[in-house]
Design brief:
With 199 residues, the protein is α/β, with parallel strands linked by helices. It has a single domain, classed as NADH:ubiquinone oxidoreductase Nqo5 subunit (Beta Polymerase, domain 2, 2-Layer Sandwich), CATH 3.30.460. It is built from three helices and nine strands. It has a five-stranded mixed beta sheet. Strand 8 and strand 9 form a beta hairpin. The longest helix has 14 residues. It is globular and about 60 Å long.
C-alpha cells in the first residue's frame, strides 16, 4: 500500500508541479486540496493525464465548517470534497476545494468531466447553497422547490420556517408557518436498588 501511495504522490507532484497544492497523506489515503481558481484544471488533469487516469467520480459532497469540531472555524466556511477512483491504475484520491466567498459560495462544476457529479452537486446546492458554476441543471433535488434556506448549513434553524401538508379540499400542497412548540426532552432515569443484580 505504501509503495502505491508513493507512486501516486510522485505522479501528482510531477503533473501538478506548476499548481499550488496541499497534499496530505493520512491513514493510507491522499487528500489533495487546491484553490478554487485551479479546481477545474486540476480535476481535468486528474481525469485525463495517463499517469493519473482517475476515470470515475465516486462521491462529491459539500461541508459547512463554520463550527468544525464544536469550535469556531478560522478558514473559509464551505468546502467541496470529491472522491476519485482510477480503475485502470487501482488507486483513489480525495480532492478538496474551498469556496472563496462565504456569502455566495461558488466553485466550478465537474459535470463536464464526470457525469456522476450531476446529482451530487445538486444535493450540495440544495442542502448547503453551494453554487456550481457551469452546471447545466442546478436546481433543488431533495427539498421542495418552494423551500426556503439550506438545511445542512450550521445556522439553519432546527425547526425550520414553514411546514407543508396536503389539503384535500383545495387538492394541493399548502405551506403554513411552523406550529410545532419547542420542548425540552429529558431522558427517563431508572433508579432501582438491585438493578442488574448488583448489590
Amino acid at each position: 500500500m505504501s509503495q502505491r501511495l508513493d507512486t501516486l504522490e510522485a505522479a501528482l507532484r510531477a503533473r501538478l508541479a506548476d499548481t499550488p497544492i496541499d497534499l496530505k497523506r493520512d491513514r493510507g489515503e491522499i487528500t489533495l486540496t487546491v484553490a478554487a481558481a485551479d479546481y477545474l484544471a486540476v480535476a481535468t488533469a486528474l481525469r485525463s493525464d495517463p499517469t493519473l487516469k482517475f476515470e470515475q467520480l465516486m462521491d462529491l459532497c459539500g461541508l459547512d465548517l463554520s463550527t468544525y469540531r464544536d469550535q469556531a472555524w478560522q478558514g473559509m466556511r464551505y468546502c467541496v470534497v470529491s472522491h476519485l477512483l482510477s480503475i485502470s491504475l487501482n488507486w483513489r484520491l480525495r480532492l478538496k476545494v474551498f469556496a472563496p466567498d462565504d456569502n455566495v459560495p461558488v466553485v466550478d462544476s465537474l459535470t463536464g468531466l464526470w457525469s456522476a457529479a450531476d446529482w451530487f452537486e445538486r444535493e450540495a446546492f440544495d442542502m448547503l447553497g453551494i453554487i456550481f458554476d457551469g452546471h447545466v441543471d442546478l436546481r433543488r433535488i431533495l427539498t421542495d422547490y418552494g423551500f426556503i434556506g439550506h438545511p445542512l448549513r450550521k445556522d439553519f434553524p432546527v425547526s425550520g420556517h414553514v411546514e407543508m401538508r396536503y389539503d384535500a379540499e383545495q387538492k394541493r400542497v399548502i405551506y403554513e408557518p411552523v406550529t410545532i412548540e419547542p420542548r425540552e426532552v429529558t431522558p427517563r432515569i431508572i433508579r432501582e436498588d438491585n438493578y442488574g443484580g448488583l448489590h
